[in-house]
Amino acid sequence: MDGAAGAVNPIPYGRQWITEEDVEAVAQVLRSGWITQGPRIEAFEKALVDTTGAHYAVACSSGTAALHLICLALGLNEEDVVVTTPLTFLATANAARFVGARVVFCDIDPLTFNLDPNRFETIAKKATGRKKVVIPVHFAGLPCNMERIRTLAENDGWLVIEDGCHALGASYDAGSGNPVKVGSCTHSVMTAFSFHPVKSITTAEGGAVTTNDPELVQRLKQFRNHGTVREPERFQHPELGFDRGVPNPWYYEMTELGYNYRMTDLQAALGRSQLQRLPSFLQRREEIVSRYREAFDENPLLDFQVIPAGVVSANHLFVLLIDFEKLGKSRRQVMEGLRTRGVLTQVHYLPLHLQPYYQQELGTKPGDFPNAEAYYKKALSIPLFPAMSDENVDTVIQAVNEIVKAKDDG
Ligand SMILES: Cc1ncc(COP(=O)(O)O)c(C=O)c1O
Fold first, then answer.
1. What pTM was computed for the model?
2. Is the pLDDT reported for residue 81 higher than 50?
3. Which residue has the CA at smallest separation from atom 10 of ligand 1?
4. Residue 408 pLDDT class (50, 70, 90 cuts)
5. CATH class of the region 277-404
6. Left, alpha or beta for 172 (phi > 0: left; psi -120 to 50: alpha)?
7. Which sequence spans correspond to the domains of the chain?
8. CA distances from 320 to 52, 127, 154, 400 (A)
9. Can you tell me which atom of ligand 1 is nearest the CA of 316?
10. Which numbered atom of ligand 1 lies nearest the CA of 139?
11. Domain 20-275 - what CATH class?
C-alpha cells in the first residue's frame, strides 16, 4: 500500500479480526433461539479456563464490569485502599471508586512501563485501610513482576488483583522452566480481562474474571445478575422458597445490591470462536513487533518498552517513545504527518493522576509521578493488530522513518 492508498484506507492503531467462522458461530446462536446469557456462556468460560489455566472464569459485559465485579466480590468500600498505576485506562482506578475505595497511585518503572514494585514496597508499608488491594496492570500486554509484587503484598497484608485487560495470552517464567500464564491467578486473587475489539480476542464488548476461589465465583456471578441467588441452599426465606420441601421453580432472592453485567450468548459464541485463533493472533502480533523493533532500533530519537528475560508479552500495543524535543516537531505534528501517510496512531494514556476527576478527588498534580509523566511526554502507539498485512507493516515503518528523522540525517 503506498501513501496515497494508505490515506484512502488508513491503518488504525488496532482492530478486530472477524472470520466467516466467527460469523457462523454467532449466526448459529441467532438461529438457536437463546440469545441472552445461556449455554454458550458456560462453554466460553470453560474455554477461558483452558486458555488461562485458572480454575474458574466468569464472563461479563466488559472489562470495566469485570473490575467492578472484582471490587464488589471483595466487598470493598470507603474504608479500603486500592493501589494501582497511573499508566492505565480509566476503568482500573474507576472500579475502585465505584465502590468508594480510596485510590493511591504508584509510579511506573521507566523501562517496562509497569507498576514499579520498589515504589509499591514503600507505599505498602505506609498506606492504611481495612482491606488493602494492589492492582498491577500488564501494560501493553507485558506481564508485571508478579512474584515480587505478590511477595511484597503478602508481607504487608495486601490482596493482589491483576488487570490483564491488555494481556490475554501473555506469560512469564522466573527461571523454573514452567511459564506462568496471565489469568492463571498464580500470584493473585483474581484477574480481569477485556474483549473490546482492539484486545487479544474480541466479543465486541465483553470481559471476564478468572480466579481459583469458588466462593469468589459465587459472589462474582451473584453481582453479575442483580445480586440474586437461585441456589435453594442459600435461600434466606425457606417458607417462600420451598413448597413441602421442594424448591419453588420461579423463586430467587436478592441478598446483595447487584447489576446487570451479563454477557450475551452471541458474544460468548464469538469469544469462543476467537479463542481458537488466539495462538495465531499472538504469533502475528509478535512477528509485527519484531519487525518494528528491528526497523526502529537504530533511530536515536526512538525508544520502546523493555521486555525482561523470560517474559512473553501479548503485544497489545506498540508504543514508540519519541523524543519530540530533539525531533523539533510536536506530537500532533507527528500524528498528522503519519496520518497523511495512511497511518493512524493513538496515545495510551494520559496518566490518571492528571485527569481532572482524580486531581479533584486525590489532590494529585503534575510532577507527582515523574516516570509516568516522562513516558506520557513521548508516547505514541502505532498500528498493531493481527490482521495487518506485511504491506501495512511496511507502510507504518516507512512513514515513521520519514517523519521521525534526526535533523542531521538530511
Ligand atoms: C488496562 C485496561 N483496563 C480496563 C479496561 C476496560 O475494559 P472495557 O473497555 O472492556 O470496559 C481497558 C479497556 O480498554 C484497559 O485497557
1. 0.96
2. yes
3. 63
4. low
5. alpha beta
6. beta
7. 20-275, 277-404
8. 29, 34, 35, 10
9. 16
10. 1
11. alpha beta
